[in-house]
Amino acid sequence: GAGVSQSPSNKVTEKGKDVELRCDPISGHTALYWYRQSLGQGLEFLIYFQGNSAPDKSGLPSDRFSAERTGGSVSTLTIQRTQQEDSAVYLCASSLESGRVSEQFFGPGTRLTVL
Amino acid sequence: AQSVTQLDSHVSVSEGTPVLLRCNYSSSYSPSLFWYVQHPNKGLQLLLKYTSAATLVKGINGFEAEFKKSETSFHLTKPSAHMSDAAEYFCVVRPYNAGNMLTFGGGTRLMVKP
User: Fold this and answer.
1) Which residue of A has its CA nearest to B35?
2) Does A31 touch chain B if contact means CB atoms closer than 8 Å?
3) Tens digits of pLDDT across chain B (114 residues)
4) CATH second-level architecture of A5-96?
5) Domain-embedded: residue B112
6) Chain B: residue nearest A10 by CA?
7) Residue ranges of the domains in chain A?
8) Is the residue at B97 inside a domain?
9) Chain A residues whose beta carbon lies within 8 Å of the beta carbon of residue B99
């Protein structure tokens, strides 16, 4: 079956603009995660959704970052007033459940470049 | 708080020789531990995971890792490297009480020489 997909694969934007990144998880996966991979910080957890529960936003770096998950499926990560330090690869993952041993399947990522 | 340290940022081996990628973790509670691989321009793929069952874990593509609680280590090994193993490898920890957050190590880039 299809894996996790993300769009766009690459996004170049100007400082100060807003961007939206999309994630389509694997069908039937109830848990969805966003991570950021950057040169200086490695791979960082951003936010986690599980079913209809309130998301775990503990990893979001600032209030310019927000995410939604509509209908328990597709998720959108929004970055407002982008800064150059937001340049990174944004990775989405999904898993069947939220158990600590359940495997997270990762998408190919969206490479964001802020000029 | 939990953390993961990958002791080598780069490892270079010759094809056919053993691979050792080192990982040490710190966690207040019994963790789940994972190794992921990332090939260029590809998504992260799970190699193997430790979940408090057998301490020697076998994964895909001939990789295995041994959980050593006394040393807080979870090193990744493979008896014989293949050119296709060249990639970046991440050691990952999820502590028992940390919900669903994965904490990633800094990564080790494995280079395989012919």
Assistant:
1) A103
2) yes
3) 668 999 999 999 999 999 999 999 987 677 889 999 999 878 899 999 988 778 899 999 999 999 998 899 999 999 999 999 999 999 998 876 656 678 899 999 999 999
4) Sandwich (2.60)
5) no
6) B41
7) 5-96
8) yes
9) 48, 56, 98
